[in-house]
Amino acid sequence: MSAAENGSAPLIEKHTIGYVPPEDRHGKVRDLFTLWFGGNIAPLPIVTGALGVQLYHLNLFWGIVAIVVGQAVGGVFMALHSAQGPQMGIPQMIQSRAQFGSWGALLVTVIAGVMYVGFFASNIVLAGKSLHGVAAGVPVPVGIVIGAVGSGVIGIIGYRFIHVLNRIGTWVLGIGIVVGFAMIFSHVQTADFLTRGGFNFAGWLATVSLSALWQIAFAPYVSDYSRYLPADVGVSSTFWATYLGCTLGSTLAFAFGAVAALAVPAGVDTMDAVKQATGALGPIMLVLFLLSVISHNALNLYGAVLSVITSLQTFVWRWIPTSKARAVLSIVILAACCFAAIGASRDFVGHFVDLVLALLVVLVPWTAINLIDFYLIHAGRYDIDSIFRVDGGIYGRINPQALIAYAVGIAVQIPFMNTPMYSGPIPAHLDGADLSWLIGLVVTSPLYYWLASRDGAYRRRRQGPVTVAGAQR
Asked: Is the pTM of this model over 0.85?
C-alpha cells in the first residue's frame, strides 16, 4: 500500500537524492498547481517584472504583452521537466547522469547549485528589506537572518511541508494580489501611468527573454517537487498542473511589479512602490510578501542542497545521504548566504539578475538535451541502477555526444548575448535584442538528437521500463 493510500506520508522527509519507491509515493497532481502558483507570488518575481518598465522603458501595454509571451513560452520547458518527476522518482540533477554520464553531469549540477544558492541569498535580502519595511525597528541584517532561518526550517522539514504551505499560500496570496491590483488601479499616483515609456523592440524582446528565462530557471529542480507523485498520474496531467500554476502565478507577480512601478513616480524602489501604490493595504501586502519569500525561498535552499548532495555522491557513491545530511548542508549553506548577504552591496539583487542571465546561457543547452533525451531518445525509460553507479553503468562516466551538443549550444549563444556582464556582436545589429536563449534551444535540440541517434544511447531506449534495483544504494 502506498503512502497516498494509507495516509502515512511523514511530515519530515526522509529521502534525499535516492529513488522514491512506490510505497512512499503520495500527493495529488493538483498540488503542483498550488506549489508553483503560490510560490511565484513573491518579491523577487515582482522586482523582476518591474524591470520591463523601469530598465527597458516599455509602457504598461507592451510590458504586459512581453511578460505574457515570455511566461507562456518558457513555461513549456519548465513543465516538461516537471512531468519527468513521477516517471523517474529521482531529483532532476541526478537524472542528468543518464544524459551526460556520472562525471559529465557534474558541471551542470554545480552550476545549478550555484544559481540556487544565489537565488536563496537574493531572496533573504528581499526578506530582510520587507521585514524592515513592516517593522522599521528591525534592522535589515536582522531581517535577513530571520528570513533565512524561516526558509531553512521549511527546507529541512522538506517536500510535504513545502507543498502544504503553498496550498495555503495559493489562496492567501492569490486573494491578496488581486486586492492589491484593485488598490493600485483605484489609487494611481501618476499622470503618465499609461503613457510612461513606449515600445522598443530591444526592450520588448529583453523583457520576453527575462520572463521566459524566469520559467526556464526552474528547470534544474522542478521535477524535485513532483517525484513523490504516483507514477501512474501521467505526463499530460503533470505538465498542465505545473504549467498553469507557474505561468499564472509568475505572470501575476511580474505584472504586479510593472503596475506598481508605473503607479508611483519614476525612480522609486520596486518594493517601496508596492507599499506606496497599495495605500492602506501596503503594510499588509509587505507582510504577505515577507511570508511568501520565506516559503518560496525554501525551494531554493532545498534545490541547492540536493545539488550539493548529488555532486558529493558522484565521488562517494557508497554514501547513503539521509535527512540528517540534508539538514546539516542546509545549515551550512544558510549560514554562508547570511554572511554574504549582510555584507553585500545595496544593488545585490540587480547584480544577481545579471549573474542569472549569464548562468542561464549554460543551462539552456542542458534543458534542450535533457528534454530531447527523455521524450524522444529514451521515451521516459531509464536504468535507475546505472544512474546511481560510480561508473555510470550503461551511461558511462562521460557521454561525449551530450557534451559536444552542450558545448556547441553554449558557443552559438555567445555572439547573441546582450547582458550587463557580456555583450556579443550580433545584438548591435538587432537593436540590442538578446536572442541567445532561443538560439541555444534551436541549435542544441536537433544536434543532440542527431548525435544520440547515431550512438548506442538511441538503442538503449529499447531496454524496457524503468528499473529500480540499484536505487536503494
From this structure: yes
